[in-house]
Amino acid sequence: MLKWSCMSRSRPAIKKRTRDPVATRAQILDVAFWEIYRNGFHHVSVNDIAEKAGLTKGAFFHHFPTKEALGYALVDEVLTRMVLERWITPLNDYENPLEGISANLKKIIDEMPEETLSLGCPLNNLVQEMSSVDPIFRDKLHGAIETWIAGVEKHLKRAQQRGYLKKETNARRLAEFVVMNHEGAFGMIKSVRDRRVFRSLHASLKEYLSSVQTA
Amino acid sequence: MLKWSCMSRSRPAIKKRTRDPVATRAQILDVAFWEIYRNGFHHVSVNDIAEKAGLTKGAFFHHFPTKEALGYALVDEVLTRMVLERWITPLNDYENPLEGISANLKKIIDEMPEETLSLGCPLNNLVQEMSSVDPIFRDKLHGAIETWIAGVEKHLKRAQQRGYLKKETNARRLAEFVVMNHEGAFGMIKSVRDRRVFRSLHASLKEYLSSVQTA
DNA sequence: ATCTTAACATACCAATTGGTATCTTGTAAA
DNA sequence: TTTACAAGATACCAATTGGTATGTTAAGAT
Q1: Which of A99, A152, B3, B173 is the most buried (most CB within 10 A)?
Q2: Would you say the C-alpha torsion A51, A55, A58, A59 has a positive or negative sign?
Q3: How far is CA B153 from the centre of its chain?
């Protein structure tokens, strides 16, 4: 199973305790993440989550007042951090952020197993399913997207300072475009299910990025 | 309410008939389209659809054997045609297809009412919700996407023949990129809900298209 | 050692779901 | 005018849903 490093699934557990509310909550979020990632929010029942987390429904509702509350926590605590870890933090390793964006995307594509590939992007999935149906979900998901865009923008400005990106380029606009490309690519792969299309989209984005790069 | 011209909603009805199975079926598909567009497939019950179509559940199941069958018919009969009408056919009116792609997208964005804007793209919504959950849905949705890509590719080749697009550009790859940009933009707007972002994404795509255009 | 509280389990509930069995009735063909 | 069948209505069903009320027990504080 793919590791999303930001998830502290079943932490080392120095002492084996029969009751560990912090670990239990994390476990619920972990199970919920995968179930919802695979099947969508509505397709997953509280029973499913509780069962696969080795708990009863009563325990679940002790940690989360409603099913929606779990979804909100998932966005706030898991997805937002995941965005940072997958798409923003790695850019620090690149002297040239434009190259970093392209290389990081390629790396993710190449390393992602076939099954996970066809599941798309956890964040985008939730956006499409929940945004127009629940305003609280939308706000929180919007927050995660905004974090993503802002993070990219920050690195694009760094690129401008270091002379990799044309000064006249609107960093915010480009950041929006980059994020949209990521989500669009992951969205399309869900129906197409062909890694080549993913590479094709990556190539196009790379080409675009080099067109705004300083000669 | 926005008109999706491909939908034959409540046709002229020369003679007022109390029973008109063709119209009834179309009515069901029409209602189902909007309900599913607004709320997602799982969020809509057969009861909802039947009721809003002025029918009983029994009547619904007379026309469609299962709820899934309705969804399949929706993709095959409604969404695929919609894609052609909205994104492919209009390109015929443009001497330069590259300009057509950009102008058509802009036109759609400008004409789309605020409410509909935040609902995203009907096809993309369904892709994200159903593709990884139901293989038949995925195949049919994939078919619709493929129709879209192939349509754009055809026009891009026309652009190459007429000298608007560089000969060395891979038309298929560019078509995939264009479609992905459309779906990505509509997907992102669902959470962001800001027409400016839409215009920003459109501007970026336009810029990209002009970068592959012959001087 | 006891007490208290939170962590979890058990057992239930009303509402909703997709689906079916069975009925009435409109309508086109004969 | 009759007839045959499809179009649609009515009434029901088992399964599942999110959620609750109430029980039990582990474990840190005193």
Answers
A1: A152
A2: negative
A3: 17
